[in-house]
Amino acid sequence: MLIPGALFFILFRYFPMWGIIISFQDYNPFGGIWKSEWVGLRHFAALLQYDGFWRIFRNSIVLSMLNLIFFFPMPIILALMLNEVRKRAFKNTIQSIIYMPHFISWVVVAGITYLLLGTQGGIVNEFIVKVGGEPVNFLTSNEWFRTLIVSQSIWKEAGWGTIIFLAALSGVDPQLYEAAVVDGANRWRQIWHITLPAIRSTILIMLILRLGHILDNGFEQIFLMLSATTYEVGDVFETYVYREGLVGGNYSYTTAVGLFKSVVGLIMVMAANRLAKRFGEEGVY
């Protein structure tokens, strides 16, 4: 039973790590890894000296922190709400509805966003105009870009994220709730003193793993929503790698950018894990 999972990680996770070698080379696609010139840390130095480095670093961190503050708690809240539903048929129906956006591609999500919020024919702006307001440039405004990105993430992935927390909630001993009722605890007290402590370790592990992707914001969503007017707040490492790597052909340089992101993520995971253990939690390892 372990063989399919092991093969997946070996082929698609561990084997591709061999490619990070080119971040220390001036990679030549015709010569391959063995015939490419070694340049040491030159590409990493070039990244740190890049004029727009701090802009893309700031944008990546800000978007990740906004997702951490607003998106990360949403699956937990939804799982707690679903856990309180007693009618199984209704609960299953709600779960199916909130799971469905996960299977919609980001292209479709971006299209829906443009249909709703566009200044020309957008449903929301047409409503604003009809009530006497002025059209709002949701799609080309720096002030609205990050809000749109976080909102899209919540709508698309929050329901799917409840799976892990609902699984953790299923392991809570029902006798604890019965004892709490005998002691006179209402539903809010039961959630605060029984449900949340029971899934605390799961929440912490998911938080630590999320911190490992602190510089990852996803390419497709950002790329589809990004425009020339929102580059100042929307240009992140993924879009920068696309321009320099796939469009510009600087494979070694962009591999160095990816390795830099991974090292930052590893440091964040190790720091968060050590902090968790200091507070008496198990952590990831």
TrEMBL record:
Gene3D superfamilies, per database record: MetI-like (1.10.3720.10)
One of the record's GO cellular component terms: plasma membrane
Ranges where the ABC transmembrane type-1 domain occurs: 57-272
One of the GO biological process terms: transmembrane transport
Keyword 4Fe-4S annotated: no
TM stretches of this protein: 7-25, 61-85, 97-117
Localisation per UniProt entry: Cell membrane; Membrane
Pfam families listed in its UniProt record: BPD_transp_1
Keywords of the record: Membrane, Transmembrane, Transmembrane helix, Transport
Its membrane topology: Multi-pass membrane protein
Similarity comment text for this entry: Belongs to the binding-protein-dependent transport system permease family.
Entry protein name: Sugar ABC transporter permease
